[in-house]
Design goal:
homodimer; 447 residues; alpha/beta; Rossmann fold; Dihydrodipicolinate Reductase, domain 2; 2 domains; 9-stranded mixed beta sheet; 6-stranded parallel beta sheet; 18 helices; 15 strands
Chain lengths: 447, 447
């Protein structure tokens, strides 16, 4: 207990969210503690957790002394990576669904990273905060609005820092556009678009059109969400980066949304195509509409269109789109236009030269380290932010209020759809402090 | 009166909407009446009406014996065109806002085309139907839902055919995609997108940032809509073609919508940029949000995103996008993808080859005539449909029920925005007959 109390004291003086308000960009370049390696435990070493393990091991400043999973087959893979990185084998926590609590209780961890299936993010994060271990969770929508409040309250009660690992906030083109916005190329922002438009049918099903008990990896637990829920199940890859652009929770906030879902055809068709019409899964009536479209109103008068489109054939696109009073960027088509700057009025330019010219300082500095990291380098940056903040005792750039605002899009969109499109109000998880909270995301070149 | 009663009888037996239900594609190739030229009057010969006049005069089968406008300066331009086309000067109706009624009462017109300012479409169309003159109006949103009902009731009561001149229904790429849909390349349709994304600031303002009394052309009457109304003011260029694709009013219908508007900045900024911050117009608080985003739910489970974006700098795009269970087309980026047909899974193809291969029979047949016609040839087709239906005594392919459903997006979106995004139900203007009405749009190669 001593360790975790000490940690909580340090956290409260250095990293609690309230302190962030008073901190300007300058502190971001404060020197990290020398020598000491950051000790990070990982709960969930499936495909995603193993990816993060590799990312952490590639750094020279992190050790991974503890890993936890319910599937014993994952440990040899993890240990092999750890040993090859020149580190001691990790302690293993396994055998029950609550084994992770023992990992949290070790007392020597500087942070814990949660990459378990969606439904575990919440209880694990809560327990981590209660135990005083700074925690980062993978992304997913929330099960309920209350869950978001509970995360916020756990953070505020315990003072334990929470980070949401939304890697797309660090996508190179999105960060270049953020850089352009900060240099006022777009004027005042008016409307943004984004979404998760990703044909996941081969992820949601095993060969033979199986999932759930007969599935592995995400097919084991992710697909059942589509059986039972109709809403934007995975909003933050789009809404997160756009929230950073719009200063959500930091001078702006999400006020309300409406959601519309189409009929559900894609998953059923896939089962019939790959398992035949007599396959037992062909009887399932999936709740999830194939395309869920959500419109968010913001306190400063902008609107955001968020799309969830994962059941139909389509090329991948997060559909980023930023429209301001002086310019517009449409990632679909790789196009950009600035009034008075683009050579021809009313005519798009290719965005490539702008994205290069306004490459974000973070990417300029860390490009070589990001190369080869997961998801086009984004994973490097999100882990880098987690680790560097732990080292520097600085607030996380994607915090519990961000997580709550983005995750709660899921239950709010479910409610709106269930009520025929009725608008749903976002809770103000910041309890009014969004008015004076200032941006902290990607202000410098360090993390 | 005799003439118009005769006409109404012919209309009732040949052209009334109810008859359309029983008519298959075959009748569309019925031979037109020989010899007789179709006599069309035009109300409103501003820029748009003059464009239509030119289009009609280029045909060999139409005379324009009557034109009407409130602005005497427009007549010499029109007469010059008419004389150059080898026709007699038209009779002129002018001098008062109700002069058009005299044009309608001539008794010798086969049809009338209305291209007056938006607010005149409704009373003029109503009077035309009451007088028994088949009428086509230019496009615009409705002032109210009741106005849409009144149009429908005037049509049903009088039996006079009504056509809505939505030229974008005939856009070449949109028609090619319609052709692909009818050949089942897209599978079952799930989600469509469209909109009017057109920087109209130079249309809404004269040099010196003037409009209204000090404006000419559309600046004289269109801009005031943006002063007073907040909604999708101009929905049909997007929603019309998509409605054809989805079979709206013909086996499907628009059920409800939600709308979201952003803050209004673009028009004010334009005034300040071009007239200075002390310009009297800089004091105007424009009601119209810069980007209005509307989501429509359809009876068959599809959703449609409609965007209205006319106040900000941006390249023109109607943003067409069609997503089905087997394929997807995104005009932004000129991209298309069909599962199992596109060479690489999850990878877009350029749409060009498909658009050429599936060029609609109408375009194949009339390409040379359409060349040089307004709006990339679309204007040829919409006028051609009007004239050919008059000649053949066939139902118009874009009728009063289509007009009502598309135009009423405007007041419904206003209501939704005013109520914070509350969903609004579409009236069923077909009174339930959408279930058995079958498509008539662009079934053949004639019109």
């Amino acid at each position: 207990m001593k360790t975790s109390i000490d940690r909580r004291d340090f956290i409260k003086t250095g990293m609690a969210a309230g302190v962030a308000v008073a901190l300007g960009p300058k502190i971001l370049s404060a020197a990290p503690e020398k020598e000491k390696k950051i000790r990070i435990g990982i709960i969930g070493i499936g495909l995603r957790g193993t990816g993060h393990l590799e990312g952490l091991l590639q750094r020279g400043d992190v050790t991974v002394p503890a890993v936890c999973d319910i599937d014993p087959e994952r440990f040899p893979i993890a240990q092999d990576l750890i040993v090859k990185a020149g580190q001691k084998k990790a302690d293993v926590y396994q055998g029950s669904e609550t084994a992770y609590k023992k990992l949290l209780g070790r007392g020597d961890l500087d942070g814990v990273l949660i990459a378990a299936p969606w439904l575990w993010h919440f209880p694990m994060a809560l327990d981590a905060m209660k135990t005083g271990v700074p925690v980062a969770t993978e992304v997913a929508g929330a099960a309920s609005v209350q869950e978001c409040w509970d995360l916020v309250e756990a953070h505020e009660t315990t003072g334990t820092p929470f980070m949401f690992l939304e890697n797309v906030c660090y996508r190179r083109d999105v960060m270049a556009v953020l850089n352009m916005i900060r240099q006022n190329l777009f004027g005042e922002l008016i409307h943004c678009r984004c979404g998760y438009q990703h044909d996941l049918r081969e992820v949601k099903f095993q060969p033979g059109a199986e999932f759930g008990e007969k599935g592995v990896h995400e097919a084991r637990w992710r697909t059942e969400q589509a059986v039972k829920r109709n809403g934007d199940l995975y909003p933050s890859h789009g809404a997160g980066p756009v929230a950073m652009v719009l200063g959500i929770n930091r001078g702006n906030r999400f006020v309300s949304l409406t959601s519309t879902a189409t009929k559900s055809r894609g998953l059923h068709n896939y089962i019939v195509d790959h398992g035949g019409e007599n396959h037992p899964n062909a009887k399932i009536a999936f709740a999830l509409g194939d395309v869920v479209t959500t419109l968010i109103r913001c306190a400063n008068g902008e609107s955001v269109l968020v799309t969830h489109d994962t059941n139909l054939p389509r090329p991948y696109s997060l559909g980023f789109y930023v429209h301001g009073t002086r310019g517009i960027w449409n990632h679909d088509g790789d196009r950009i236009y600035f009034e008075g700057r683009s050579p021809e009025a009313h005519v798009w330019e290719k965005d490539e030269a702008y994205l290069r010219q306004y490459d974000h300082p973070l990417w300029k500095k860390h490009e070589s380290k990001a190369e080869g990291a997961g998801h086009g380098g984004m994973d490097f940056f999100v882990l880098n932010a987690f680790v560097e903040c732990l080292k520097r005792k600085q607030p996380f750039p994607i915090d519990v209020y961000d997580a709550a605002a983005w995750k709660c899009i899921t239950p709010l969109s479910e409610h709106s759809i269930a009520e025929g499109g009725e608008p749903q109000e976002f809770p103000d998880f910041t309890r009014g402090t969004w008015i004076r909270r200032t941006p902290v995301f990607a202000l410098g070149e360090e993390y």
